[in-house]
Amino acid sequence: MAASKPVEASAGGSGGGGASGLPRWQLALAVGAPLLLGAGALYFWGRRRRRRASGASERKTPEGRASPGPSDPSAAAQPNGPGGDEMSPLDRAQAAKNKGNKYFKAGKYEQAIQCYTEAIGLCPSEKNADLSTFYQNRAAAYEQLQKWKEVAQDCTKAVELNPRYVKALFRRAKAHEKLDNKKECLEDVTAVCILEGFQNQQSMLLADKVLKLLGKEKAKEKYKNREPLMPSPQFIKSYFSSFTDDIISQPLLRGEKSDEDKDKEGEASVVKENCGYLKAKKYMEEENYDKIISECTKEIEAKGKYMAEALLLRATFYLLIGNANAAKPDLNQVIGMEEANVKLRANALIKRGSMYMQQQQPVLSTQDFNMAADIDPQNADVYHHRGQLKILLDQVEEAVEDFDECIRLRPDSALAQAQKCFALYRQAYTGSNSLQVQAAMKGFEDVIKKFPRCAEGYALYAQALTDQQQFGKADEMYDKCIDLEPDNATTYVHKGLLQLQWKQDLDKGLELISKAIEIDNKCDFAYETMGTIEVQRGNLDKAIEMFNKAINLAKSEMEMAHLYSLCDAAYAQTEVAKKYGLKPPTL
């Protein structure tokens, strides 16, 4: 697919990356991809210890057991019955509560509310614990009647009396969810998660749900109004390196050179007019990427000789700056040009298919890749990128078939061979097949031996070695990758994460991730990872700063939503710390 080293991040998440027994820095290896939005909150809040199954129980019933008595709620002990004058105000309140519990159990919620209200009125004001229980019980009855505003109000009173009252906080969180108060819901459920030690799956799932909703809501608004941002030259070169049959990314041919360049060489001018596309290609060779879209536009408006190429190149850079809405019409036009070079049309289909996948439209994405294979069956790029799509869809066997076809068409495709090994490894790893894991690891050795200049081979092998806890060898592979591509910031991030997982060396890990930012200050993955580590260190304000930097660099709305989820989770923890003095464990 048309992304910078997409399998590296996405496939890394297919092997149970959400397992709560793993440290978050290990999980971070699998969370960099925009296509793993759902893992965001659970990964962010995952703790080293496993969740206890008992923590998933529903919180529906009121607190306190009714006193033994007749099955008819009305026959329960009456505050003013025989001996009632001898009962203390608290005893009378407890009796009213017990009566309310019987009504609640019988499904008579209005009567239960009356009893709990009576208990609240009778209870001495200094009895905070009892009063908070009565309010929480009344909130439980209101909840059954779906009176969410009253639920929230009573839970608020319960929490004011008992700030660490888990049942009241969680019930209020659910009421806020129903009232569409997402921020308040998140703060309450964050407090619950911390108080429960991140052990209750029910609370974790609500947190994940509201974080997703908040993230999507904020990303939709932000992405719509964002300023276009050109990625770093490193990212752009990495993107184009994933294509071998892409005409627009090839160097200028002698016959395509501009008039000025040809005059310098003393050649006759072939292109008489001022050609916008050829200027764009020259700017591309010079890495002067900001001028490419405008020059392509000139070619398109002039309906020049290279109109199809200009449309595809402009669409590609629209995608790179995150403007899919502008890219789509250009891609559609190229795809519909039956007279155009078939490789241009196939490339447009690959890029539109990748765009659809990024927008979580896998059916449309698959259709585009299949159409590309139909119109240009000898195009190795189609099978290479479709193989990556199949990995994202957990269709590993089909992915391997596509990589094999890519390799058949281009035996020198080191990238396809490395990614095929990684697909086979993930399949074996997730299936717990030790023999197949060994075979896949040997496959990696064969690939790096055959293609010693393929940085991707070392990087993917390093991830597999990390899974196998062969940390020393993984570190060596990252070093080889850095030797080959010293300006690849992502490799420094992965190596930094490895130091944390392997040696718990926080200083070295942060040093390497800082180096990644120094190399590429537009590396959103580096900022995201730095933010995640700062959360673990308890530096929430710093974490929020890092997440916001990553948000501003996000290359898709879905990636931005994922980053907002992380940022909102950190912000919620700061609010909970202020209100209740609660903080999760830190490094």
From TrEMBL:
Q: TM spans, by residue?
A: 25-45
> How the protein sits in the membrane?
Single-pass membrane protein
Question: Would the keyword NADP turn up in this protein's UniProt record?
Answer: no
**Record InterPro entries:** TPR-like_helical_dom_sf, TPR_rpt
Listed PANTHER family: MITOCHONDRIAL IMPORT RECEPTOR SUBUNIT TOM70 (PTHR46208)
- UniProt protein name: Mitochondrial import receptor subunit TOM70
Instruction: Return the similarity comment.
Output: Belongs to the Tom70 family.
Task: Recite the UniProt keywords alphabetically.
Answer: Membrane, Mitochondrion, Mitochondrion outer membrane, Repeat, TPR repeat, Transmembrane, Transmembrane helix
- Which residue stretches does the UniProt record annotate as biased composition, category Low complexity? 66-79
Predominant location category: mitochondrion
Where is this gene product found? Mitochondrion outer membrane
Q: Where is this region: Disordered?
A: 51-90
Show me the TPR repeat boundaries.
93-126, 346-379, 380-413, 455-488, 524-557
